Here is the input.
Amino acid sequence: MEQDTIRISRDPLFEFAREVFSRVGMSPENATTEAEVLLWASQRGVDSHGVQLISTYVDNVEKGYMNPKPDIQIIQETAATLFVEADRSFGPVVTTFTMNRLMDKAREAGIGWGLIRNTTHQGAMGYYVEMAAKQNMAGIALVCNPPNMAPTGARSAGVHNSPLAIAVPAQERPPILFDMATSVAAHGKIGVAIDKGVSIPDDWAIDAEGNPTTDPKKARVLLPAGGYKGYGLALMFECLSSVMMGNPLLGPCLHDQDPPLPYTQNSVVAAIDIGSFTDPDGYRQNIDTLVAGLKGLPTVEGVDEVLVPGEPENKVYDDRTRNGIPLPPGLAQKLRDVGQQLGIALPAGL
Here is the structure.
């Protein structure tokens, strides 16, 4: 761990975050939701999508990019679909709202498929698909934003590093939870590197001239995971989300048309009722059997066991529950600045 990193218990950080969001104008219920999603990420080691974002969100409210009092509306719905206008809501607020309603639809129709228009940063997408898995459903979520990632062969941004998350329930173990960006590394990890004062691998991003860089402060455009595979997924996610809802985000930027406001996102969220296709108990048992088979595979030198998606984060969760959430010097100072700005008492030790 980097020198001068401190550890703060989850509950004091949660109360601090909830008070921050209340002070910027969110209702008590929405402030609680926002704090819960950020602390879920921080406690699982997804630091790029955790409390690191608090200062950015406060700044975005001041600039008018994020709306703490949105008028969330259902534009259109059927028995199995939902189209939601977020009114620049904080992402966790509108996405939990949408997923709860989609799970209700899935119980009746077998699936709930939702489009969310004009939301802002949604945090860790794994949170929402886990909501479905905890209800013995499969969950899917994906995101698209304005361009921040270079298509294969390009030296400037043309697509977004659109995240994808999928979760399914198991019987005797936690859900399998897969959450990835279509870039080599999520954009927030560059912010984490800046806060820690460390370099980044040279395949994460390119600088303003289109050259690979290891300096996170010079990183301007992300690079796709798997080359054309990450690029292709990102492109198709725009087609399934933004273009599908008549609110394209990539095209206007590429053609120098009126660009969307910063931090604008469109999203797809879905819940699938497993019982519509097979016995839910048998499904969960088969997931356990599958995981056991994977863990029984011989490993390469230096690897103790085969892990499944979500398992590394579960291990971090256990550690941080016991020992607190680590805050590197840069992040600790950002939180102190927010506390001073809003007149909020800091958690002990911060």
Notes: The longest strand covers residues 111-119. The mean pLDDT is 96. The radius of gyration is 20 Å. The longest helix spans residues 91-109.
